[in-house]
From TrEMBL:
Catalyzes the formation of N(7)-methylguanine at position 46 (m7G46) in tRNA. Keywords: Methyltransferase, S-adenosyl-L-methionine, Transferase, tRNA processing. GO terms for cellular component: tRNA methyltransferase complex. It catalyses: guanosine(46) in tRNA + S-adenosyl-L-methionine = N(7)-methylguanosine(46) in tRNA + S-adenosyl-L-homocysteine. Transmembrane segments: none annotated. This is tRNA (guanine-N(7)-)-methyltransferase. GO terms for molecular function: tRNA (guanine(46)-N7)-methyltransferase activity. Pathway: tRNA modification; N(7)-methylguanine-tRNA biosynthesis. It comes from Bradyrhizobium pachyrhizi. The gene is trmB.
Amino acid sequence: MAHARGSFFGRRKGHKLRPHQADLIDTLLPHLAVDISAPAPAALTELFDDGIENVRLEIGFGGGEHLIAEAQAFPTTGFIGCEPYVNGMAKILTQIEAQNIGNIRLFAGDAAELLAWAPTRSVARIDLIHPDPWPKRRHWKRRFVQDATVAAMTRLLPPGGEFRFVSDIDDYCAWTLAHLMRSPDFAWLAERAIDWQQPWPNYTMTRYGAKAEREGRKAAYLRFKRLP
């Protein structure tokens, strides 16, 4: 299948990796990496060991705080973390090794290409937490949420599946609401203001989210359900 051409504009590498982190990139990551050059399996659960009942995707996991916590809380769920930034990948590999976590797989590339590769209705939930907002108007096309990615998520999520979005940038929250609300395939789950003003139950705050709170920026927590 031809892969949809996505839009990756982030930095792939920042600070120099410590020797052990570099070693994990070379030795552990190949065992956990999702290879989209190979044909997709009939079900994404096949990427994991036995006992995995469903699969979730986190796009741009940063330091991995939320992804690690979710994987530990839901041991029968498989998690695919997508992060093209090498330093973020090194951080999560360190945690996976230290805590012996077996239900995470990783993709070090463009999430749009992963979405195009994955089989239909194969992901129970997709999380996008504090993505790069690309605030300048000329860069809005670089935001992950676009009509094309909404259509891709429509294909991947079964009815009842969810897309969850967190951002402390008001403009990107409005942008995301506009894109999801004009899709006939999604419904915003908020019934009152508190539903989007506070995190959902058992949400793990990321390092970036904590920094935003300290600096007085309030995040919105948006949940969208895939309609039948």
